[in-house]
Design brief:
alpha/beta; two-stranded antiparallel sheet; 11 strands; 9% strand
């Protein structure tokens, strides 16, 4: 079968609708209506956001159009407060694992696109995957996201084999306990196969919600050229019972305010269709330069650092129960600024070339094998140290997913005291493991201090003694303990 015609029948189903849930004109009308909101308008929205509820599009439009420095500061303060309330003082760590850069698509912004002759093409063998995973585990990673282009070399059965391989690797210090994936949209049957091998979050970014821009970025004769196939892929994931889903936008393709509205409408569509279950995470990558990819050097709608900061805070305020991922595409400085505004997950120790963990033990420079260049190439330990300095607990926890608390179950716990009683203790245990198994003395000292401060907060609560007991067990060599 011609690979590019693989989903032809499925595409026809989506072509039957005369509209989808993204109405470009309506989004612009909402943004234009609130061209210049008053302080009182903004404060009214913040008053609602304080209650930790998902905002309506018009309310988010007011925040997006706010240009008043005073109330922008109030937005930042509230975003920080909501992050603390919903997620506590913890940041979850992961690292990507690039499996293949072969791709039949031709996205204008991406170094992997088929017309990029400067890219060295490679798909990892099972032995090479094992080698990469061993290095990741030896550096302290417990969570990964597997990344693939869309090509005949990386169809769903191959993806399943790669996931099984990742989970099968055990070293003296442990294993990868959660493998998420970032790949092309799939059919319900394909997604069921991924569910069966135990994927964590299924991530697909819409890239841009703006229909015309989407057409310009993704040629018609490619699979990715079909906007609706991508837009409805999380609906298919839910139908396949893959219920931890990650959506995202590639910022820089179109107006950032429109894109935030798109993410909100996508969230609302999923909540309304699937019993209140919206996306598990939202990603908000900005375009970074990629070898042989002129568009990526000068994107049409490059987002400034100050707008980026605003969009992170506005997302936090608009969808308080959705995890937010800030990747190493961003520089150390930008990450330091936006983490307190609502980010719940970051990657560190990141290498994004195919086979790059084995090839570049520390420095991340393999331009002809990288999808784009990253902004923060520090080691995992450097970033854990900095997160300690920022007074957050670095977490490698995978408990919810392994206990089946995903989708609707996860939403229930996220909206309760669960984070305080379970997630924070579990974060404490995984940081303790990290400090014992991987950290140099300096990080150990910082980490132990953070642990002490956070354990103190549980004094007098029923869970306090269980935390101390588990920490003792971890010191005595037990691993992978969780509440
Ligand atoms: N090939 C699959 C797809 O397109 O959905 C999955 C993985 S793709 C390798 C991961 C994501 O990287 C894309 O969804 C896109 O948002 C992002 N990306 C592509 N080019 C980029 C660039 N130049 N800078 C930053 N992120 C980029
Ligand atoms: Fe391929 Fe994904 Fe890159 Fe597009 S973004 S060229 S689909 S790897």
């Amino acid at each position: 079968m011609n690979f590019l015609k693989k989903y032809e029948k499925e595409f026809a189903e989506y072509d039957k609708y005369d509209h989808d849930f993204i109405d470009d004109d309506k989004i612009w009308a909402q943004l234009n209506k609130w061209e210049n909101p008053s302080r009182a308008d903004v404060r009214q929205v913040l008053k609602k956001a304080e209650k930790c509820v998902r905002l309506e599009p018009e309310e988010t439009a007011i925040l997006l159009q706010n240009r008043d420095e005073g109330t922008i500061q109030e937005m930042y303060e509230l975003a920080h407060q909501l992050k603390e309330e919903v997620y506590g003082d913890r940041i979850v760590f992961f690292a990507p694992l690039y499996i293949s850069d072969e791709c039949a698509n031709d996205c204008k912004y991406c170094g992997f696109r088929r017309s990029n002759t400067l890219m060295h093409r490679k798909t990892l063998s099972m032995d090479e995957i094992e080698q990469e995973v061993r290095i990741m585990i030896e550096e302290g990673q417990k969570r990964t996201v597997l990344v693939y282009g869309e090509s005949p070399a990386t169809q769903v059965d191959f993806m399943c084999d790669t996931i099984k391989k990742v989970y099968s690797v055990k070293t003296e210090h442990g294993e990868i306990r959660r493998a998420n994936i970032n790949c092309a949209p799939l059919t319900v049957d394909e997604l069921k196969k991924l569910k069966a091998v135990g994927i964590g979050t299924f991530q697909v970014f819409q890239e841009t919600y703006h229909h015309q821009t989407y057409r310009e970025m993704h040629p018609k004769d490619t699979i990715k050229g079909n906007y609706r196939w991508r837009l409805y892929c999380m609906d298919r994931a839910q139908q396949a019972k893959v219920d931890d889903n990650g959506i995202g936008v590639l910022f820089g393709l179109y107006d950032w305010r429109f894109e935030v509205m798109g993410l909100l409408y996508h969230t609302i569509h999923l909540e309304e269709t699937f019993n209140g279950v919206g996306p598990h995470t939202i990603s908000f990558p900005r375009i970074n330069p990629a070898t042989g990819t002129p568009f990526s050097m000068h994107p049409n709608y490059a987002v400034s650092d100050s707008d980026f900061k605003k969009l992170v805070a506005i997302l936090r305020l608009s969808v308080p129960y959705t995890g937010m991922i800030c990747t190493a595409r961003e520089s150390e400085k930008v990450r330091r600024e936006v983490i307190p505004l609502g980010v719940s997950q970051i990657d560190a120790g990141t290498r994004i070339g195919v086979g790059a963990y084995a090839k570049s033990k520390s420095a991340n420079r393999l331009p002809d094998q990288e999808q784009f260049s990253i902004g923060d190439s520090r080691s995992l330990d450097d970033v854990v140290g900095e997160i300690c300095d920022m007074n957050f607990i670095s977490s490698f926890c995978t408990a919810c997913y392994r206990a089946g608390r995903t989708g609707e179950q996860f939403m229930k716990v996220a909206k309760s005291r669960f984070v305080h009683n379970f997630c924070i203790p579990n974060a404490i245990f995984t940081l303790k493991e990290y400090l014992l198994d991987y950290a140099p003395e300096e990080t150990k000292a910082k980490g132990e201090e953070i642990l002490k401060q956070h354990i103190e907060k549980f004094k007098g609560e029923p869970v306090y003694n269980r935390i101390l007991e588990n920490l003792k067990k971890i010191e005595n060599g037990e691993r992978d303990l969780r509440l």
